[in-house]
Amino acid sequence: MRLFIGIPLAAAVTEQLAGLRARLERPGDGLRWSSPDGWHITLQFLGSTSDPQYACVVEQLKKLSSTGVPVRLMDLGFFDRTGVFFVDVQVTEKLAHLQQLVTRATSLCGFVPEDRPYHPHITLARKKGKVGKGIHDLRRTLESAGSLNQSFPVFTAREFLLYESFPGPEGSHYAVRSRFALNGS
């Protein structure tokens, strides 16, 4: 199974992002738009996971103790090299702490944390194939309209999830394997 750990979005955020997507998506735009029901903030990508590793991850994540995490979405952005259009998420002390707790817990199950800095974001679209024209066109459109700076509602994450990813030709879809509560404020 192919797993990752992430924070689900609040309904108000999902609704606002869905409206943004509806305004920007165009037939034949060269982009594969992600589905609102799959939007999340990744804490750690685990990848291919054996059954014993899965059991270990669930056991370790159940032991974590953290309060709710305020989540603030920032501006729209692009990873040009990979052809990804996203919404940036502010790295707060509480979000960084939760991400570190998660990676420490999964390291006990044989997973190695990435060595690059944590850059939380919500992927809205990816380029289709090798041609990145759709991403470049979208960037030009947003820059000319001054629409890269958006205002999104702040929400408090009250849980994080262990997801299983199922890749497909129209993009990946996800199933929730386990839920883990974040208590307090």
Write the layout of secondary structure elements.
Blueprint: E1 2-8, H1 11-24, E2 31-33, E3 40-48, H2 51-62, E4 69-71, E5 73-79, E6 84-89, H3 93-107, E7 121-127, H4 133-145, E8 155-157, E9 159-166, E10 173-181
Antiparallel strand pairs: 1-3, 1-9, 2-7, 4-8, 5-6, 6-7, 9-10
Overview of this protein structure:
The protein is an alpha+beta fold. It has a single domain (2-181), classed as Cyclic phosphodiesterase (Cyclic Phosphodiesterase, Chain: A). It contains 4 helices and 10 strands. It has a 4-stranded antiparallel sheet, with helices on one face. A 4-stranded antiparallel sheet has the order 2-7-6-5, covered by helices on one side. The two termini are 33 Å apart. The model has no long low-confidence stretch (mean pLDDT 90).
- Strand content of the residues, in percent? 25-35%
Helix content: 25-40%
Query: Could you report the average pLDDT, rounded to the nearest whole number?
Result: 90
Question: How many domains in all?
Answer: 1
Number of E strands: 10
CATH topology: Cyclic Phosphodiesterase, Chain: A
CATH H level: which superfamily?
Answer: Cyclic phosphodiesterase
CATH class: Alpha Beta
The general outline is globular
Rg, Å, rounded? 17 Å
The largest pleated sheet is described as:
4 strands, antiparallel
Structural class: alpha+beta
- H-E order: EHEEHEEEHEHEEE
Q: Concise description?
A:
With 185 residues, the protein is of the alpha+beta class. The protein has helices at 11-24, 51-62, 93-107, 133-145, and strands spanning 2-8, 31-33, 40-48, 69-71, 73-79, 84-89, 121-127, 155-157, 159-166, 173-181.
